[in-house]
Amino acid sequence: MAGLSGYDRVYRGRQLDSRQYQDNLSEKYYDRDFIRPLDLNSLPILSEENCQPDNDIAIKKSVGIGCGLVSLITENLLIHPFIVLRRQCQVNPRATTYHLVPITLIPVMIRLHQTQGLNTLWKGIGSVLLIRGLTLGIEDLLSKITPWPKEIDNNTSIKAFGQHILLKCVSIGIVAPFYSASLVETVQSEIASERPGILDVFRDGAIRLLEVGTKGRLIPIYALLTPHIAYGVAKYLFGLIVRNVVARVMFLRERRSQEKLGAYSRDMSEGVVQDIELHATLISMCAAEVAFYPLETVLHRLHLQGTRTIIDNLDSGRSVMPLLTGYNGAFDCYRTIINSEGTMGLYKGFGALVLQFGIHFLVLKATKYILTEIGTIFKTKSKVVKTPGQMYYNDA
């Protein structure tokens, strides 16, 4: 600019040397040091706190799978002694002790163990498992050779739901004679009866199926199909409704608890869903067993009538007695029980049912607690804390 050529370079009132200015231009800016960032050789390590939600989800999923497996084992194996006691109480019309509460069954179980051994409470377990497997196999086969669905959900149409119920009716009807043979094995006394073989349930079921005519007081299996199928389908539908209602309520409670914590998620984790479905299934099973207990008592007595079965006398636990009944049908059996044994006669052995589900719930809670504690132990406790180093340096 004209008129400024004679002036020296000045910064904040201090004269700058031209040579110094030129030489230090690359390192300084008007006697001020450049501040340059350090080169990043590696990405900063993230804290493991960010991985904690994933670890929690994996642990909850593992706990849900473990609880489901233990619940399945408990349902099919551990609670079988209480099923044996319950059925023996149900079919005994001459029992004076009804065992409506669990406490009365404890001394009886001790006496049975002393007189017959521990195996007496596990009789018929093989046939019970075979019947459950046979039922599942028949349902699977029917679903493959027919358009009837084996499983249903909330999106199932009315037509598909009707076909599903039809599949249940057919499978229950086919298994009925083998169920009757299995029932005999679970209630007959081991003192006065020979121990059956593993596959004898199929032989006895086939014999029961072929007995068309009346033989003494034995009721033909065809006459029992209607009440047997009606009982099975009604119990299944009741349990299905209870399970859906309980699951819905538990889902709503879980979402409300998430909203209170400010962490509402549209899709729940798989572990939470498994836990809700497991508890809903167990509650529905318990509700169905309680609601249909009187009908089960009637049905079991009809199945065993005329089979010449000798059962343990659970009034004392030290003797046996034969089953001698002469019912003409389901309604006659119901009226006879009410008139001769009272209304509570329909609930004989209810204490065993209380023990059955009490043990089931207790095992489930204990398993969940143990698996949760194990998951907590194996969870990574060490957390890497980010301590930012020197990101800038001074070249001066």
Automatic annotation (TrEMBL):
Q: Name the Gene3D superfamilies for this protein.
A: Mitochondrial carrier domain (1.50.40.10)
Cited InterPro entries: MCP_dom_sf, MCP_transmembrane, SLC25A46
The segments carrying the Solcar repeats are 279-374
Where it sits in the cell: the answer is: Mitochondrion outer membrane
Alphabetical list of Pfam families matching this protein: Mito_carr
- Return one Gene Ontology term, BP aspect: mitochondrial membrane fission
The main location is mitochondrion
**Gene Ontology CC annotation, any one:** mitochondrial outer membrane
Keyword Repeat annotated: yes
Q: Carries keyword Nucleotidyltransferase? A: no
How this chain sits in the membrane, per its record, is:
Multi-pass membrane protein
Ordered alphabetically, the record's keywords are:
Membrane, Mitochondrion, Mitochondrion outer membrane, Repeat, Transmembrane, Transmembrane helix, Transport
Q: Which family does the record claim for this protein?
A: Belongs to the mitochondrial carrier (TC 2.A.29) family.
Name this protein carries in UniProt: Solute carrier family 25 member 46
Q: What is the organism lineage in this UniProt record?
A: Eukaryota, Metazoa, Ecdysozoa, Arthropoda, Hexapoda
